Amino acid sequence: MRELVEYIVRGLVDRPDEVRVTQVDGETSVLFELRCDAGDIGKVIGKSGRTIKAIRTILNAAAARDGARAMVEIVE
Asked: Which of 17, 19, 70, 76 is spaced 20 to 30 Å from 39 by Cα?
C-alpha cells in the first residue's frame, strides 16, 4: 500500500523525487506519513481537501481487502 500512495502522489507533484512515505504499523491500522516539498503540499491537499480525501478513500479500499484500516497524514 505504501507504493500505491507514493505512485499517486508522485504523479501529482512537481518534484516527485522529494516524496517520502513512511509506514507505521499498528495492531489493526496502518498510518502512512507523507512528506513532500513545501511547494507541492497544496497540490496533494487539493481544493477544499478533495485530492487528499480521494487518496484516503482509495487507500481505505485497498486496506479493507486485508481487513485493516489505513490513514494518511501529511507531515510538513
From this structure: 70
